[in-house]
């Protein structure tokens, strides 16, 4: 990956206050708001004895990935395509694939930074337990990042303009937020619904992160779902993506 391209894309990202807020700051802010509610700091039997604020810590992590994957990445890539940046890069020694790699590195890095911020604030402010299985948590998180970026690449591939990318991203955004457990934690979903949600990338990610947070190794089935979605979405993006 060209380091100059990476630095340039990171500077451009920093100039987008909306992206910085929604990806890096909003998940932690949401966790802080929920943690400030007294009832969210009390154990809940329906959550297996967890406090709601503990259950929402992995969800805050996933919100950053969803924001980055289906909202920010497609807008950035289609914007470059619309403005002819990718076409002009074909006349330089820098390959357009370097730009794609830089965008994924920036978006993925910021999302991981947001996850670390949410876990740190949750721990320091509300006593949220750190993942009991850190290696499994990291593995599940990295697979979730890969799936989110692959999904964003598909949205970019099928969108000719930023308006279309925004429309498709929004259409994908809300179902993925539901699957991640934003409105109803996966632990509280009816059994059949939870099984169906577990077959989606962010539903599987939520289950895997919850298991690792509780100290168990994430289920290989959930990790397998994440890996399968990453492979399928990456193949689709590679097939449909156009530089111009």
Describe this structure in words.
- This protein has 244 residues and is mainly alpha-helical.
- It has one domain (3-240).
- It is built from 10 helices and no strands.
- The protein is globular, with a radius of gyration of 18 Å.
- The two termini are 21 Å apart.
Q: Secondary-structure element sequence?
A: HHHHHHHHHH
Rg, nearest Å? 18 Å
Can you summarize the main beta sheet? none
Low-confidence stretches: none
| Helix and strand composition category | mainly alpha
The total of helices stands at 10
Helix percent reads over 70%
Average pLDDT confidence is 89
Task: Specify the overall morphology.
Answer: globular
N- to C-terminal distance? 21 Å
Q: What's the number of domains?
A: 1
The count of DSSP E runs of length 2 or more, i.e. the number of strands, is 0
The proportion of strand residues reads under 5%
Family: Belongs to the ABC-2 integral membrane protein family.
Transmembrane segments: 20-40, 55-77, 98-125, 137-158, 165-186, 220-241
Subcellular location: Cell membrane; Membrane
Main location: membrane
What's the layout of helices and strands?
Layout lengths: L2 H12 L2 H19 L16 H31 L2 H5 L6 H31 L7 H24 L4 H19 L10 H7 L3 H13 L6 H21 L4
Helix pairs in contact: 1-5, 2-3, 2-5, 3-5, 3-6, 3-7, 3-9, 5-6, 6-9, 6-10, 7-9, 9-10
Give a brief outline of the structure.
By secondary structure, the protein is mostly helical. Helices cover 75% and strands 0% of the residues. InterPro entries: ABC-2_transporter (IPR052902), ABC2_TM (IPR013525), ABC2_TM_bact-type (IPR047817), ABC_2_transport (IPR000412).
